[in-house]
């Protein structure tokens, strides 16, 4: 139900926002946030009557779209019966959410520690790894994003780390595979895989294996560019962790819950980590929730010895009720299979056809509902369309592309020189094609910057 446009209300919402809301990751006076009036399914709209197809799924979390009636009803019902209850108690919504998640996580990741989101899941996963091993260091990839809290931002490799990096002791970065811009002079996936694994093993050996508690990786790095790891890489990391007694943490905050066309991206590669973080898609972000799925061996460490950590809202009943409903909707409506099929049959061929028409598209990569287009000035040299970490004028070509997409009714995900195609996992074929057409048209703006 699209309400009637009401620019006056929109202006008031915007004025209060500008006066009092302090926005994340932003220079407060240089931003111009859209006042959003409503959202449903794959769309949202503003107070002026403009409607946008959301190819960002919010922050890549509305995996079943906005306002799914079954999830809204479950939240309402939970609110009517038990809005909240402290984490030390067994509560139906919480235990059912944990059961449904554990049923789907790979291997023996059968115990669930609930958090309020992804960053705190990463905080706790690394704490568990350090306590389990008694070692201080965590190895993380440069091209990664693990969250905005202190430890998580320091583990993060992308430029958002710079401004808040206090150089947390015990964080060591390494290069993970990225064939398009290979750090290893690789020309094939196999070379990239072998050399990245050798580089990681060298890092472990030179850091001192006895000091390395954990290796954390996004199963498929999301914010940093949706780089699908080459075949054998994650299995190779698993083997290195086993060889040196290191805890393997996979961060599935973005890649989990259907995004890649599997319940978890780890399933694509047949790997089982020791700890796996999740958030976002677990309940489509309707109420904040995240967590860590814990292996039997690590759970055992804390069987008789208390785990020193917790959160007031851990496993909040409203959030867990939303998770139960979301997981059930995904199962009943075949959302995971839909994401795999639509990705392979519509999104991938659509993006490849777009790449043929637009010289600004340097590479298309992805899987399921998790795709990136890397925009370049020159396909031969692969020079990015905008410089690394561009802001202001330097970012103008990407900003112009974004504005063109919005004019075409498409809300695009833009990060550096990339646009990600990450619609809800239950986006319909018609919607997906509509979005691809809008993207196609907007890319002509990017083409103007090609040499
Ligand atoms: N890990 C990954 C892989 C993420 O993509 C994100 C969020 N984009 C986080 C952690 C942090 O999650 P949150 O913002 O919920 O703290």
Architecture overview:
- The protein is an alpha/beta fold and 451 residues long.
- The protein folds into 2 domains: 172 residues, Aspartate Aminotransferase, domain 1; 264 residues, Aspartate Aminotransferase, domain 2 (3-Layer(aba) Sandwich), CATH 3.40.640.10.
- Helix content is 39%, strand content 17%.
- It has 14 helices and 16 strands.
- Strands 4-10-9-8-7-5-6 form a 7-stranded mixed β-sheet, sandwiched between helices. Strands 11, 12, 13, 15 and 16 form a 5-stranded antiparallel β-sheet that branches.
- A hairpin with a 2-residue loop joins β15 and β16.
- α7 runs parallel beside α8.
- The longest helix is centred in the last third of the chain and has 23 residues.
- It is globular and about 60 Å long.
- The N and C termini lie far apart (46 Å).
- 49% of the residues are buried.
- Bound molecules: 4'-deoxy-4'-aminopyridoxal-5'-phosphate.
- 4'-deoxy-4'-aminopyridoxal-5'-phosphate binds next to α5.
Averaged pLDDT: 96
Please report which band the strand proportion falls in: under 5%, 5-15%, 15-25%, 25-35%, 35-45% or over 45%.
Answer: 15-25%
Cα shape:
globular
The percentage helix is 25-40%
Question: Any idea of the CATH class of the largest domain?
Answer: Alpha Beta
Write down the CATH topology of the largest domain.
Aspartate Aminotransferase, domain 2
Q: Could you give the order of the helices and strands?
A: HEEEHHHEHEHEHEHEHEEHHHEEEHEEEH
Bound molecules: 4'-deoxy-4'-aminopyridoxal-5'-phosphate
Strand order of the biggest β-sheet:
4-10-9-8-7-5-6
Q: Which sheet architecture does the biggest sheet show?
A: 7 strands, mixed
From the alpha carbons, calculate the radius of gyration and give it in angstroms. 22 Å
The assigned CATH architecture of the largest domain is 3-Layer(aba) Sandwich
Give the full name of the CATH homologous superfamily of the largest domain: Type I PLP-dependent aspartate aminotransferase-like (Major domain)
How many DSSP E strands?
16
